[in-house]
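Researcher: Structure for this, please.
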Amino acid sequence: MDLVARVVPQPTRAERKDALRRAIATATSLGVTRVHSLGGDEEVLDLLAELEREGALSVRFDVAVFVDPPGLTPELRRRLADVRATYRGERLAFGGVKLMLDGVIDSKTAAMLEPYADDTRRGESFWKRDDYLRTVAELDADGVLVSTHAIGDASNRLALDGFEAAAKAN
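Model: Predicted structure, token format:
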């Protein structure tokens, strides 16, 4: 991935906006009326807001933004509050956050309880357990919808533990 990132140029803001405009037009032509995007960023929200102001947002969007380890800092908490306050319209709304616990099975980066059948590796969680549990509970207390990418059984266990702990705490 590092090699690809160095060789393949990142799209410009204008290119990203044009790609969104074309995707929205295609979705509309196919009858799509609402999109739940799990894992955008604040730039995507800004670009969609520009398209909405231009009258080009013919599909409703609920966009969740990524939160990376170690989780909520006071600055991130303020930014999320600002995003929630800014994007709460009928056509464009903040849809919560997405946390990534692990990778995927194919590359053996999904966090497993036991080693893979053909390897000694178990994958690894991107989050420390306590950071994940604390972050889920804090987001839940703030009324933020939490989505979690969890492929391996160890990550699924952690995700369920986090949701259960948040429900008890809040």
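Researcher: Any notable elements?
Model: Helices lie at 2-7, 13-29, 42-53, 74-86, 129-141, 153-169. The CA atoms of residues 98 and 115 lie 26 Å apart.
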